[in-house]
Amino acid sequence: MTSYTQDDLWVWKTLFQRQRKNIPQKASSAYIQALERMKPVLNADEIPDFEKINDWFSKHNGWELQVVPGLIPVEDFFQLLAEKKFCSSTWLRAKNSLDYLEEPDMFHDVFGHVPLLSNPVFSDFVYEFGKLGCQFIGEPERLLQLQRLYWFTIEFGVISEQNKIKSYGAGILSSYGETNQIDLMKANFLNYDIEQIIQKGFRTDVMQEDYFVVDNFDVLFSSLQKLASHWQKTPILKV
Questions:
Q1: What angle do CA 131, 64, 179 make, to 5 degrees?
Q2: With 0-12 CB in 10 A as exposed, 13-18 as middle and 19+ as buried, what is 125?
Q3: Scanning 59, 72, 132, 225, which has its CA 20 to 30 A from the CA of 232?
Q4: How far is the C-alpha of 132 from the C-alpha of 150, rounded, in Å?
Q5: Domains observed in the chain
Q6: Which of 43, 14, 28 is nearest to 156 (CA)?
Q7: pTM for the complete prediction?
Q8: Looking at residue 75, what DSSP letter applies?
Q9: pLDDT of 239 higher than 50
């Protein structure tokens, strides 16, 4: 079990309170509802207890958090998702790194990713995403395409709600600056096109310039099903 310091608690509480105050009208309604739903086990006043969170999920849809030391091989990542296990770090950024770090910490993993795992459609999308990845273990071209899809949806996805672009991706919602960039429309917002996404490269060390907009989470789920069907019928294309 990880031991946390008062500095860690300060970092968690500061990040949580700041972003919770920042995201109304900027985050998707599904995320806001999910964060509120998980308030008993996910809040500003205590560093997340994974046993409590896993117990909460066991009573809902069966997801659980799997502690990992950091970034893990993509094959292992897909396998865990296919078992409804979501990877999370247990370390927190330092006080002097509140606004940016390239490697995800627990605030990114838990505040950013975990709430929407309680949303039925989004949860199914993530689960099916993991299962699809497992089907193509050993085929690096397909896995690279899935990594791109993950990046532009689960990490940096945006959704249109009442003619306003809102965020649902964890990389956005765990970042004060990126959330505000979306709200100010300081980027390119493209129609969601899975064929375009799986061919598009990305950078991890800068704020994103391009985002793909969905109308609802059903679009994500159905597009993944279509991609899986297409891949099963066609040879691998070099990327």
A1: 85
A2: buried
A3: 72
A4: 12
A5: 6-233 (1.10.800.10)
A6: 28
A7: 0.93
A8: H
A9: no
